[in-house]
Amino acid sequence: MANPSLLVMGAIGTITWGLAHLLATKPVITGMGDLDRDQERILTMEWVTGGFFLCFIGIVVLLAVILARPGDHSSAAVCQASAIALAVHTVLSLMSGAQTRLLPLKICPLITGSAAALIFFGSLHA
Asked: Domain containing 37: what range?
């Protein structure tokens, strides 16, 4: 790995934001106002899925860092693929969540975009 400290920072940021998603599920759904049962279930499913996605990406990057061997390019490829997945998540967040009135959704692209950049640049070989 070219810069494990960048990778670890990006991974920890991603995991932390994923856990924040999971912990905030009920307050966010409640804050959406009067929803019917189907809407509430769909939003809950999407919010929890987003949290698990972020935690998963962060854990995969941490495992790639921990298990990397010198000269092993597969760990770098895993980290770069993870960074691309986070970048796609960032774009989707910019197009949807950032357009809402909810502060966590407005800052989500900043957090996930920063984590994607840390992970991507941390995975590049000099």
From this structure: 4-123
